[in-house]
Amino acid sequence: MKLPLSSLTLVQFVRFGFGGLFVTAVYSAIYLGLVSTGLEVMPSHFSAYAISMVVGFITHRFWTFRETGPRSNYASSGAKFVVVTLVGFLLNTTFVWVIAGPWLGLAPWVPLIPVFCVTPVVTFILNRYWTFS
User: Please, what is the Cα angle at 109 between 14 and 57, to 5 degrees?
Assistant: First the structure.
């Protein structure tokens, strides 16, 4: 599959980055807020992650990829968005496990390189050409 690299795609990639920062801030605020109320970290994490996935879907559907795809089938694009989010989660988990875990045993910050350089590109492509197409 040849991916067209247009000025619209570049604009969407930049918006995707800003949208991701916004969703991360929402996640962080909810997570820290729940933890500060005394809720354990894992329930706080899962609650914040679930809410931030919804915020991420809305952000990317109506801002990042507003020029692409039909607007009517939210169930389908929402399900696809969950799959893409899980792909990103699995990629990041693999990077951490292989690079900082038992395989290579490098410093804990080293997996952040592919986490920040590879995962966003993969999830952008999947969202642009599958989820919101």
Answer: 35
| DSSP-H helix ranges across the chain | 7-36, 41-59, 74-95, 112-117, 119-126
CA distance 109 to 131: 31
Q: Tokens 């980055």 label which residue?
A: 17
DSSP code for 127: I
Cβ neighbourhood burial of 53 (10 Å; 0-12, 13-18, 19+): middle
Rg (CA), the chain: 16
* 28 CA to centre of own chain: 14
> CA 55, 58, 62, 67 torsion: positive or negative?
positive
Residue 4 phi/psi, 5-degree rounding, is: -70, 130
What are the distances in angstroms from CA 75 to CA 48, 79, 117?
A: 21, 6, 29
pTM of the full structure: 0.81
pLDDT in the model for residue 117: 92
Tell me the per-residue pLDDT of 10-45, one tens digit each, with 9 for 90 and over. 999 999 999 999 999 999 999 999 999 999 988 998
